[in-house]
Design brief:
By secondary structure, this protein is mostly helical. It is built from 25 helices and 3 strands. The protein has a 3-stranded antiparallel beta sheet. β1 and β2 form a beta hairpin.
Length: 559
């Protein structure tokens, strides 16, 4: 599903969230296409960072090297650069689906409603349960990489290729890379070592893979658990409701076997993953991006302000609440403290050079002190939390301390090109794709055209502002054709002197005369893309088109 922080609509192709996940997890797109809601879960890493860290994981047993179907996992940690955080992108995608496009949040107690629902979905009715075609994925991935000036031969493998090369550049051990990319298939790895190896896991998230306890970023500053829970519940109330339903279902089970049969563990894993995605969405939205060398971009605004103008997701009222302002102020204070405490090198301070031996000793000391510094930052964040909570976002961004240029930063790694490409991808194309909503009455069809349905835009406004671009997706042309035929018929009746309600009633009566569409076609197929079963919209549109043709023929004959 195509989306990124500057796009307010969805299309039926993989996009930036999938690119980020492919690069971060060293996965091919085919693995991501097969991911379902029931595959998601979280895991705590208590020894990563000063206070521990949560990772979003997924089951991924596909792949030509996994011939025996052994359990295989991939996943992501919170990225040090919020702009490149896969969980931020995934949270954004799910919120677009459930909040703006009115996709119904799955019922966790109904297996058919959530178990096979896909992370990468198609447009149209039932698209959340269908797999994206290989050719469509390849074409759109190729276009996306071209927009980012990334040249590659195998677009669907590019994330896996780039990820391994950058891990090697980061001096991660080759055996760790093989485990991370699931190339090792000995008995030990397939039977016991199921966890994702930590060194490449940290490296792909932008941290020093040799110092797991120093993994820290300002937007990951500790925030009260209840405060964050209330904020996520405010963002998507359906999540808390489904969590309560699953907890009650667990309480009614007499054994773990019974809970497993009801797929409650899968439901619980998905809900925990959703809450983590949405928490990282909030944290990253309130944070500023980082430059290629890892420093906070002091000239930039927080991401929610940076993308607000063209992204409907960041225009919702949630970002104007006092609860969000409180969290944003906490993250802003942590960022300012990180900027203020960055050590300045001798070359920047006095102009004097440093001998190679002294430079190596200094680097080793900083390497050893990094975990202690990270813990001190957490302690300071916790102690300053009450004061930071009372600071408004406007006050905290009024003045920033001037920081002298830092000339002794580490050289940019080969991931700098990838960082720039991903940033351009997030700030690039301005899409306006709109999915037709399922309708069952002529009144709903006309409302979608004139005023919009489910908080979406009116189709006549999309035509005025974007021409044909809003319906440029697979099946969009056919869907627009039969919608347009019915719109024209209603407008024709109004032009003849009928009021709007009389015209709608006239068309509804003619639609009702048609036989209802069967649930299953005579051939046994149930595939009906883009329209709800039970209403023969296509048949009615064909009759209208044939009637216009007959009228034209008669007019020519008389002439």
């Amino acid at each position: 599903m195509l989306h990124h922080p500057e796009v307010g609509y969805l299309s039926s192709v993989p996009g930036v969230d999938d690119v980020l996940q492919a690069v971060a997890a060293n996965a091919k797109l085919q693995h991501l296409q097969l991911q379902r809601f029931s595959h998601l879960f979280t895991r705590d890493y208590p020894k990563v960072g000063p206070v521990g860290m949560k990772a979003a994981l997924t089951v991924s047993n596909s792949g030509k090297t996994n011939k025996n179907g052994h359990l295989v996992f991939n996943g992501v940690l919170p990225h040090r650069n919020p702009l490149l955080d896969t969980m931020f992108a995934m949270g954004h995608m799910l919120l677009l689906r459930f909040k703006l496009l009115a996709e119904k949040f799955p019922n966790m107690l109904q297996v058919d409603d959530f178990y096979h629902r896909r992370l990468i979905r198609l447009t149209g009715r039932g698209g959340e349960f269908k797999e994206v075609a290989y050719d469509s994925s390849y074409r759109h991935f190729k276009d996306l990489y071209r927009e980012c000036d990334v040249l590659c031969d195998k677009a669907l493998h590019q994330g896996r290729v780039t990820g391994q090369q950058e891990l090697d550049d980061d001096l991660v051990l080759i055996d760790q890379i093989k485990r991370f990319c699931n190339y090792l298939h000995d008995e030990q790895n397939e039977s016991y070592l199921l966890n994702i190896p930590l060194q490449p896991f940290l490296s792909r998230a932008g941290y020093d893979h040799e110092l797991k306890s120093a993994a820290y970023a300002a937007h990951l500053t500790p925030i009260d658990v209840n405060t964050m829970k209330e904020l996520i519940d405010l963002l998507l109330p359906q999540l808390a409701s489904e969590e309560q339903s699953v907890q009650q279902a667990f309480a009614g089970c007499e054994s773990a076997t019974e809970a497993k049969k009801k797929n409650l563990f899968c439901a619980q894993g998905f809900l925990r993953a959703c809450r983590l995605y949405f928490e990282m969405f909030v944290r990253c939205a309130a944070a500023r991006p980082r430059t290629a060398d890892g420093a906070i971009d002091q000239e930039s605004q927080p991401l929610y302000k940076l993308f607000r103008e063209r992204n409907r997701m960041f225009q919702i009222s949630f970002f104007h609440t006092a609860q969000f302002d409180q969290v944003a102020a906490r993250i802003r204070a942590a960022e300012e403290r990180e900027i203020r405490d960055v050590p300045l090198g001798d070359a920047a301070g006095s102009g004097l050079g440093v001998s190679p031996i002294a430079e190596r000793v200094d680097g080793r000391l900083l390497h050893r002190l990094a975990p202690i510094e990270a813990k001190l930052n957490v302690i300071l964040d916790t102690q300053l939390q009450p004061a930071g909570a009372n600071v408004s976002l406007a006050d905290s961004s009024a003045q920033l301390p001037a920081t002298p240029p830092q000339d002794n930063k580490k050289p940019a790694r080969s991931s700098a090109a990838k960082n720039a490409a991903m940033a351009r991808a997030r700030q690039g194309a301005d899409s306006c794709i709109y999915m037709f909503q399922p309708v069952t009455t002529v009144q709903q069809l006309w409302d979608e055209y004139t005023v919009g349905l489910a908080a979406g835009p009116a189709i006549q406004d999309l035509i005025r502002d974007h021409g044909k671009k809003w319906r440029c997706y697979d099946g969009g042309r056919q869907l627009w054709w039969w919608h347009k035929e019915i719109y024209n018929e209603i407008e024709r009746l109004v032009a003849e002197g009928n009021n709007e309600q009389e015209a709608l009633a006239n068309v509804q009566a003619r639609v009702d005369l048609l036989d209802p569409e069967p649930e299953v076609s005579p051939s046994g197929s149930t595939k009906k893309r883009g329209r709800p079963r039970g209403v023969r919209w296509m048949q009615f549109a064909n009759e209208l088109a044939n009637a216009k043709k007959r009228t034209k023929c008669v007019a020519k004959t008389e002439h």
